[in-house]
């Protein structure tokens, strides 16, 4: 039996499935080793790992993000002869515009979901008068760093080389669905996760992948992801994907009541049907709007070669 077609396409290029598998396995092994070494180092230095300090969480995301970007560049270079900027994390033309538009889309989408729940009478938002301005400012800044690190890792991993290598093999739809399944499943360990939260996170994966497809840059989905989490947890004072202690002194104190299938309950807005509606609407809007767009160089770097068949 000739195994060559299983591993290589007609252009003698390693198929996208094997490229993606090599990438994920390399990132996983390196991240596990790095996280283990980091944990031992922090314990040795006496840094608390109980969630009272943001340092371990931020450093963990840095440890996870570093191999993701490194192997994204390495396998793009080895398998597909691509430059580093093909990953969409460099300061290519329009990157700052994409970031700003992403921040606006993420914040607005989250506020629309909150407005739906508020309008239904199942959300209350009050000024946080119990915390001083210094504590609130500290929470806003500290969580901004955490959410930057978290969004950077998840976007560079799931919408980076993992998704992009399928794009270059004319398997964009498969890549979007597959990486969104992984994105949703990674959140299953969060407190309060259930079928609806998984479904919403899957939709969020599609939402962010569409944002990537629109610009072929990670700055747009990164901005969306960052603003969604930060506004939800640090501004409105609502749990983010079931995590309630990330923002101890938010700008507002939000509380959700009523049926959890609508409001999300203790999981936060991402656990309710209002989020489902908001994600679908925002995805369609991003897809239909004429802006932002991708510059010609990024389109060329992230599209399949004209002469190549599906990988």
Explain what the structure shows.
There is one protein chain. The chain is mainly α. It has a domain at 94-302. Helices cover 64% and strands 3% of the residues. It has eleven helices and two strands. The protein has helices spanning 4-7, 16-45, 55-80, 95-119, 133-167, 172-186, 195-215, 219-235, 260-263, 273-288, 296-302; strands at residues 123-127, 252-256. It has a two-stranded antiparallel sheet. It starts with a helix and ends in a 9-residue tail after the last helix. The model is unreliable at 306-311 (pLDDT under 50).
Mean pLDDT: 92
Give the % helix: 55-70%
Strand content: under 5%
Main β-sheet description: 2 strands, antiparallel
Work out the number of β strands.
2
**Helix-strand pattern:** HHHHEHHHHEHHH
Q: Helix/strand-derived class?
A: mainly alpha
Number of helices: 11
Q: Work out the radius of gyration.
A: 20 Å
Sheet with most strands: strand arrangement: 1-2
């Amino acid at each position: 039996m000739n195994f060559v077609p299983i591993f290589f396409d007609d252009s003698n290029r390693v198929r996208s499935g094997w490229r993606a598998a090599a990438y994920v396995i390399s990132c996983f092994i390196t991240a596990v080793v790095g996280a283990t070494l980091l944990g031992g180092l922090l314990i040795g230095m006496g840094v608390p790992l109980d969630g009272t300090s943001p340092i371990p969480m931020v450093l963990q995301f840095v440890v996870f993000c570093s191999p993701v970007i490194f192997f994204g560049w390495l396998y793009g270079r080895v398998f597909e002869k691509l430059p580093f900027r093909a990953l969409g994390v460099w300061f290519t033309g329009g990157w700052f515009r994409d970031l700003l538009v992403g921040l606006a889309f993420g914040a607005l989408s989250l506020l629309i979901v909150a407005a739906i729940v508020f309008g239904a009478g199942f959300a209350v938002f009050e000024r946080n008068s119990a915390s001083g301005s210094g504590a609130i400012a500290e929470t806003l800044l500290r969580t901004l760093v955490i959410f930057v690190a978290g969004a950077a890792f998840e976007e560079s991993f799931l919408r980076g080389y993992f998704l992009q290598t399928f794009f270059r093999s004319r398997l964009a739809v498969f890549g979007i669905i597959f990486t969104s399944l992984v994105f949703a499943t990674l959140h299953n360990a969060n407190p309060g996760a259930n079928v609806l939260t998984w479904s919403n996170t899957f939709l969020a994966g599609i939402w962010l992948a569409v944002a990537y497809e629109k610009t072929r840059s990670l700055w747009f989905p990164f901005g969306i992801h960052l603003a969604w989490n930060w506004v939800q947890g640090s501004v409105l004072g609502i749990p983010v994907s079931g995590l309630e202690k990330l923002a101890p002194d938010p700008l507002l104190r939000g509380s959700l009541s009523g049926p959890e299938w609508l409001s999300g309950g203790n999981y936060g807005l991402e656990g309710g049907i209002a989020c489902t509606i908001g994600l679908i609407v925002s995805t369609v809007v991003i897809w239909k709007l004429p802006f932002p767009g991708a510059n010609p160089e990024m389109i060329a770097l992230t599209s399949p070669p004209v002469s190549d068949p599906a990988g």
